[in-house]
Amino acid sequence: MSRFLLVRYGEIALKGRNRPVFERTLVHNINRALESAGGRPGGRGLRVRSMPGRLAVQLPPQAGEAEVWRLAGAVARVFGVVGVAPALRVGLDQDEIARAAVGLAGEAVAGEGVRTFKLEVRRSNKAYPLTSPEVAADIGRRVIDAVPELSVDLHDPDLRIGVEVREDGTYVYGRSLPGPGGLPVGMSGRAVALISGGIDSPVAIWMAMRRGVVTVPLHFWSFPFTSERARQKVIDLCAVLDTWGPVPDLLVCPFTEIQTTVRDGCPEELRVTVMRRMMMRVATRVASEERALALVTGESLGQVASQTLESLASIEAASGFPVLRPLLALDKEEIIARARQIGTYDISTLPYEDCCTLFVPDHPRTRPSRREAEAAEAGLDVDGLVERAVAGIERVPATR
Ligand code: ATP
Ligand code: MG
């Protein structure tokens, strides 16, 4: 008998001939998660095995209950994973299967006060002599005989016992942890993600990551108008995001010259629009260098003056890449709930100012046209400003 984490994945199974690539990326990311959880994949028997429709992580025989759930928790943060269950693998034999199921049921009754259960049997091993309903009926009867506190409830059981009869043995499991779903990071190419210290952009990055995008974080920093602590906040946000999946090094771009030039050289009510267009230009340059295919922002339709459809269009016109806005249709409350779940909320709400709150006029234009924006920046040395900002970018290695 050996112990495994049985990993279910969702959409990946639907990807036809691409499936091996998806699976390999998922295995790679699971290994990374196990490694940062101290699980040392490859060593100590922690090996990820692939089988039809599932992955199985072999656990070291000496791993205690707390260790098993800790590793399961790490895998449950990997994008692409739908569920993770600690499982026992026993032989292809009703007696062995029953012993494992009875053991699980007994523990659940003693530990969690479980009273009803249901067996969920899958039989991918077509050579096994019993059908799935026959396996369920036999094991169910034996569980009830051995654990008289339990009765069957097919509709709303306290405990579901999974039994998967496969080629290499039978996997038996009880409680499972839900995963975040989505696609493994690395499946959908690269994008440059504009990250402020606010609530929204880290959530936008998380959502892009969940769809498989590698997001290169880019932060505009207006020292000394914004402090060292504002910069540190972004570094800390990236570290949280990195616990969900690989986040490349943070790029910190000096933004002070652009901001002061825009303040002094553009009509006040168009400052924000022009400043954002400058961000787009710098990000476009970075994206080309990073072999990225898109930009990601935390913009949400109508949230502030710079996020009306007219503003978004005028700003995006300065970008050479599609701008992805995962939060476009979310309300603030939904974004906040997500930020709490991700673990970025408490950092985002620290008070240190971001450059966007600098030099903001009392009455910004809410519907700036592209033509007005272009006229407003006619007197600026746009290329020179972008050039110097890009040249000053500092690479901050991810803290893991
Ligand atoms: P956030 O909470 O992400 O700051 P927000 O609702 O406060 O978003 P804005 O401040 O208008 O909105 O910024 C819109 C988007 O522009 C941000 O989500 C982010 O993608 C980008 N952005 C804003 N400020 C910066 C910055 N200093 N560095 C990098 N990107 C930024
Ligand atoms: Mg902001």
Q: What would the keywords be for this entry?
A:
400 residues; alpha/beta; VC0802-like; 6-stranded mixed sheet; binds adenosine-5'-triphosphate; binds magnesium ion
Number of helices: 13
* Total domains: 2
Contiguous low-pLDDT stretches (5 residues minimum) are none
Which sheet architecture does the biggest sheet show?
9 strands, mixed
> CATH homologous superfamily name of the largest domain?
HUPs
Bound molecules: adenosine-5'-triphosphate, magnesium ion
Mean pLDDT: 92
Helix/strand structural class:
alpha/beta
| Number of E strands | 15
What is the CATH architecture assignment of the largest domain? Answer: 3-Layer(aba) Sandwich
What percent of residues are in strands? 15-25%
* Distance between the amino and carboxyl termini: 35 Å
Indicate the overall shape.
elongated
Radius of gyration: 26 Å
CATH topology-level name of the largest domain: Rossmann fold
What is the helix fraction of residues, given as a range? 25-40%
> H/E order of the elements?
EHEEHEHEHEEEEEHEHEHHEHEHHHHE
CATH class of the largest domain: Alpha Beta
Note down, in words, how this protein is organized.
The protein has 400 residues and is an alpha/beta fold. Helix content is 40%, strand content 20%. The chain has 13 helices and 15 strands. The strands form two sheets. Strands 1, 2, 3, 4, 5, 6, 7, 8 and 9 form a nine-stranded mixed sheet that branches. Helix 5 links the parallel strand 10 and strand 11. Helix 5 packs across helix 10, helix 7 (256-265) packs antiparallel against helix 8 (271-289) and helix 8 packs across helix 9. The radius of gyration is 26 Å and the shape is elongated. The model has no long low-confidence stretch (mean pLDDT 92). Adenosine-5'-triphosphate (ATP) binds next to helix 5 and strand 11.
